[in-house]
Amino acid sequence: MLKLSRLTDYGTVVLARLAREPGARLSAAELAAATRLGGPTVRKLLKRLARGGVVVSHRGARGGYALARPADEISAVEIIDALEGPVALTECSGEHSACEHERNCALNHGWPAINAALRDALSAVTLAQLASPVATLAPLRFHPRPEPRG
Q1: Which one of 37, 41, 72, 150 has the fewest CB atoms closer than 10 angstroms to its CB?
Q2: What is the pLDDT of residues 46-101, one digit of tens each?
Q3: Is 34 among the domain residues?
Q4: pTM
């Protein structure tokens, strides 16, 4: 089963809260209270999201965290990359493969293509869509590519 971590799920909840108030700066404590998540978990998520360029941190009396860009410019793949690292279904489908069998594997070109399609699909989904109280996502439809003719 392909499954995102609970931290990524929680991170998306935190980001959705920020997305509902564009331009707002909320402290980690405010976000924890609003999302009913633990303070240490929210702080950990915000650090990762800031490192990944998804949120920005502001210091001072009017400090807090805000989205780095409008929610409709932040993709699901950016969120996942910031919280889990680059999306990779298998060892050979990531950016830097360390698979000892890759050179002789009959599948080493198939998985990267599938991974690229997954990244494309996740890139098409925005935080604004995820955070919307109304279903804004149309079902994604993938069509098999025609077989090459020899």
Answers
A1: 150
A2: 999 999 999 999 988 788 999 999 999 999 999 999 999 888 777 665 565 666 76
A3: yes
A4: 0.80
